[in-house]
Please model this.
Amino acid sequence: MTTNRLAPSPFTLARRRAQRGLSLIGLVLAAAVIVFAALLVMKVVPSALEYNAIRSAITKVATAGGNSIRDDQVAFDRYAAIDDITSIAGKDLIIEKRGDGHTVISFEYEKRIPLFGPASLVIEYRGSAQ
Model:
């Protein structure tokens, strides 16, 4: 009984058909998607960090509860200088003094992030603190 060693067995042929790999075009497309996602994340994260800093600052200002609206605006501007907040200023805050002594501070702003060419991403931020 002689076996032809050059002819592949049916098991080997089935195994080759089952194996699928990533083609060069697929690899390039996957890399492009990953690069675009990384670019998007690198541009959005600083804006999100600034939003969190704004929320933290207005929470501190609302908790401290200044005597007047102007005092709260000035206090926010101090926090903004420390945390490098540039998207919003104390004059942009909506400050309400309630009769029970609580202060409600809210804000709303739009951040435009240029991506490439004429395309940009617009994020609307809003929040409040009591």
The helical segments are 10-18, 24-64, 69-83. The two ends are 90 Å apart (CA to CA).
